[in-house]
Amino acid sequence: MKKLVFLLLTSVSISLSAQYKPWTSAKQPLKEIKALKKQIKKPEFRKVDYLVTDFGAVGDGKTKNTEAFKKAIEKCSAEGGGRVVVPPGVFLTGAIYLESNVNLHLTDGSTILFSQDSNDYPIVFTRWEGMECMNYSSLIYAYEEENIAVTGKGTLDGNSDLDNWWFWCGATKYGYNASRPGRQNPARAKLHEYMANRTPARERIFGDGWYLRPNFIQPYKSKNFYMADVLVKNSPMWNLNPVLCENVLIERVKVISHGPNNDGFDPEACKNVWIKDSYFDTGDDCIAIKSGRDEDGRDIGRPAENHIIENCEMKDGHGGVVIGSEIAGGAKNIYAIGNVMDSKNLDRALRIKTSSSRGGTIENVFFYNTKVGAYKEAAVRFNMHYEKPGNHIPTIRNIWVENLTVDKGGKYAVFSDAYESSPVTDFTMINAKMVGVQIPYKVDYLKNVTLKNVTVNGQPLTELKP
């Protein structure tokens, strides 16, 4: 029996290792992108409209319309779906729950203004910084729903500022001071403790008195989520945050939000995601792909898989395309093509950040046809020592960068901080022209590096050595 178990385990190990094949040409990921685009489709909705004003909503910016939105969405879903339409005006509301087959449609000139009262956000099953818990509902939330959308040329205003939501982060630059109640640090530490002890997620109860800010839009364990054309601004925390979702399509969305941890788009442990033609002007990373923190990410074991980031503009933000740091479930098949980024606050264009408290494998990252103006630290950054160390050494492999231009580079072109036992493996850079860089590179542990037609400040870059 022991021999049989050994043989089975060996067979599984060989099978898994055989699945890894680094790309040898850009034609391979380009072909994969083409096939993936055919799989990702926007949901279709019944051609029936439900006007929120018919359910008692008043667009005066003062009347609270939470119940009107709830009634309109419930009736729409119960009758087979359609559009819940928001006409011109400013509609104040608490949390909105999206039910299956409902398209929340904001007409041009409409604004949904979210309440600053935490009592308007019920406690739901959610994720906060990649950790499962019971906390305030996101401003727009769905759980195990199908065929849901937020569309139209209106505005979603999270109504956050230095006096509402933001100061809970505990930073004085966002309005916190010792004389006012509210700081997330004790709750954050408690949630880490719950996770480390594997306390059941539904027993990790937060909410009033804990000061964990809600995210803006969070469909959870849902299928066929679509967003188009809306402006999203002033989020309490992360802006667009689908979790454990499948078939996510986002196009022509504009995110302008400069509060603390105001990432633009944070898909967590999702499969088949395509965001295109969108605009990010944010207070943190523009796009940060995630799959859960530490024990929660590893125990659930769902990677971020099959993501396309196409033709997006990163006007402002700390990172352009970021993978991590809550990436314990791993990530694979991440394709960023045709994106533009330029900002005095941009630290890195492509960043992969993880740690040995996370673990997991990040593989098959394709960064193609990218135009970068200015950045501060590195065009390409690998970091396996983000936050505290642990006993789960991560893997980063098959990273392909091609057709990259940088006009006003920062400190490094390439910066790597890895483990000797787990070097960044199969890193390829082709047709890259970077100027204004202080130091061509700073690297430690890289394996199987390919550089073709790469120049830094007009000089060929032919090797990356410690």
UniProtKB/TrEMBL annotation:
* Listed name of the protein: Glycoside hydrolase family 28 protein
Leader sequence range is 1-18
* Protein's UniProt keywords contain Hydrolase: yes
Enumerate the PROSITE patterns for this protein.
POLYGALACTURONASE
InterPro entries from the UniProt entry: GH28_Enzymes (IPR051801), Glyco_hydro_28 (IPR000743), PbH1 (IPR006626), Pectin_lyas_fold (IPR012334), Pectin_lyase_fold/virulence (IPR011050), RHGA/B-epi-like_pectate_lyase (IPR024535)
Which GO molecular function, any one, fits this protein according to its record?
hydrolase activity
A matching Pfam family? Pect-lyase_RHGA_epim
Into which family does the record put it?
A: Belongs to the glycosyl hydrolase 28 family.
Origin species: Chryseobacterium formosus
**Keywords per UniProt:** Glycosidase, Hydrolase, Signal
Q: Where is the Rhamnogalacturonase A/B/Epimerase-like pectate lyase domain?
A: 52-104
Q: Key word Translocase present in the record?
A: no
